[in-house]
Design a protein that fits this description.
The complex is a heterodimer of chains A (about 350) and B (about 280). Chain A is of the alpha/beta class and about 350 residues long. Chain A is built from 17 helices and 13 strands. Chain A has two domains: about 60-85 and about 95-270, Rossmann fold (3-Layer(aba) Sandwich), CATH 3.40.50.300; about 280-355, CBS-domain, CATH 3.10.580.10. Chain A has helices at about 20-30, 35-40, 70-75, 100-110, 125-130, 135-140, 140-155, 170-185, 200-220, 230-235, 255-260, 265-270, 280-285, 285-295, 310-320, 340-350, 355; strands spanning about 5-15, 45-55, 60-65, 85-90, 95, 110-115, 190-195, 220-225, 240-245, 245-250, 305, 325-330, 335-340. Chain B has a single domain (about 15-40, about 85-275), classed as MetI-like fold (Orthogonal Bundle). Chain B is globular, with a radius of gyration of 21 Å. Classes of the chains: A alpha/beta (about 350), B mainly alpha (about 280). Chains A and B meet through helix 4, strand 6 and helix 6 of A and helix 9 and helix 10 of B. Chain A: The complex is probably composed of two ATP-binding proteins (TmoW), two transmembrane proteins (TmoV) and a solute-binding protein (TmoX).
Chain lengths: ~350, ~280
Amino acid sequence: MESTEVLIDCQSVWKVFGDRSREAIRSIAERGLTKREILQQYNCVVGVSDATLQVRRGEIFCIMGLSGSGKSTLIRLLNRLIEPSLGTVTVKGRDLSRLDAAALRETRARHIGMVFQSVALLPQRTVLENAAFGLEVQGVPRDDRNRAAEAALAKVGLSDWKTRYPRELSGGMQQRVGLARALTADPEIILMDEPFSALDPLIRRQLQDEFRQLTKDLGKSAVFITHDLDEAIRIGDRIAIMKDGVIIQEGTAEQIVMNPADQYVADFVAGISRLHLVKAHSVMMPVDQWRFQAPGLSLDGLPRCSPEADIDELIGTITGSGSDAIAIADATGIVGVVTTRNLLLGVRGEPDARAAA
Amino acid sequence: MDFNPGAVLAPVIDWLNANFHGFFALVTRLIEAILGGLEAALLVLPAGAVIAIVVIAAFFATGLRVAALAFCCLGFCWLAGLWQASMQTIALVVVAVAIAVAIAFPLGILAARRASVERALRPVLDVMQTVPPWVYLIPAVMIFSLGRVPAIIATIVYGIPPMLRLTTLAFRGVPTDLKELGQAIGAKPSTILWKIELPAAKPTLLVGLNQCILLSLAMVVLAGLVGAGGLGAEVTRGLTRMEMGLGLRAGLAIVAVAVLVDRLTRGALDRRKAI
């Protein structure tokens, strides 16, 4: 389902807040000042610093960062709720900064849905009216918009709650309405601003899985903001990690866990379970090396797994077979061997598992 | 040192009178026409019929409680022999409040959007609220002469500040995420105002309207001093003749009218909340 078509292209975007932001931007452009120098010289806060990212069709792109890292500012730059100070944001090939007010409204209404941490449901409207609100402001006739809203509510499992008011719903259900409202207008891109952060852990996990499934089924693209790395890993196809307004690393969950860009990321991923993240191809050793270590054993006697098998599956195979090693085979034949030692290193997430073996 | 702002203001009033007489005459005739029409409409039917209509309308618009209250309030005005004065007062208050809201509501929204507007308005509102109301009855009478028009102008001036301040407060209090939602779904500014901000601001706006109505009614008593007629005139008569009974009856009738108008507007505007 993933393709290389880029839906959101964000090039060297800056956002500077403060009374002298204009001067600060000029000195960034001309002299390349850093965030700290901007604060010292101009008393301006850099919200987002030189952010470049691309969101492709069909993927879920997570932006992970702690509070104050600029992630909420960054997501608002993607639909121009906040004007970038510098740099360009292109959505479906159209430069947002060049759009006039009407064209910008049109783009937001048709192409970019948004879900908020606070849900932002209108209290005096029913669930159905809330879900249909996006189409209502576009001037879609009542019957049409209600039909679309009913379909969206059915997707999030709230068909029985159409005539209720938001205050009658639990937090998790309210956020489902928020998601349904974003889906009703059928946009290609959904911006999710920490949608599940205020929910309790069990409901949160459930919604994470449902959200991922729904997004993939409908072929939507999403930018998902979170402060929780576990959540980013569960949901995201790719993850960008932000700190102090800077994207410090971008990649798949496995890339980030196995090769953290710096100590900050390393500290973050330290507590993450590798069981479902690390795949066989990251921990296996070459066949020759295994032959050297274990002379006299035959490859044919080993259980087999694919290079895409995760550590959890490998442990299951090894404990189930009584063997100390697994042969890793793809379509072309055996490409490597995973021993118990490799697995243990993999569980600890040591990037040099192969070198150490 | 002798500072006398009146020495400056009096010539200004004179100059206004001399040069804008036509305009003031037009305003006078316009207000007189609206007020007279409303008053005639309220008095064309016998009191019993008006009471019946109001009670039935109140029942369908809001419910049994307000209908019963309307019956008691209007019944008292009738039985106290103050029916005509009460209707005059209601007409005066309705017109004054309508004009005050028409001025205060947009200005209040503007002040909520722009801090500079609010900064400019605040001292003006402070003056309007703290200067004793009969002080600005004087220039109103000088320009519009005695009668209902200066009374209604003074009532409007008195009714604007609470409505304006609470409108500003109400629109400031609209949650940021709701406004952001409006922008994110591509709603026009006018749509955001009517469909998102106004419903969210409604509870505070209703408090503003309520204050506007009650302060206007309080002002109506003073308006009796300049010949506006209605219940204010009865109170004034009671005061000047030292007739305790008349003053008390008129005073209670004002309370009855205040309660009635307040509950009716609140009930009618706040209906959906009860669902």
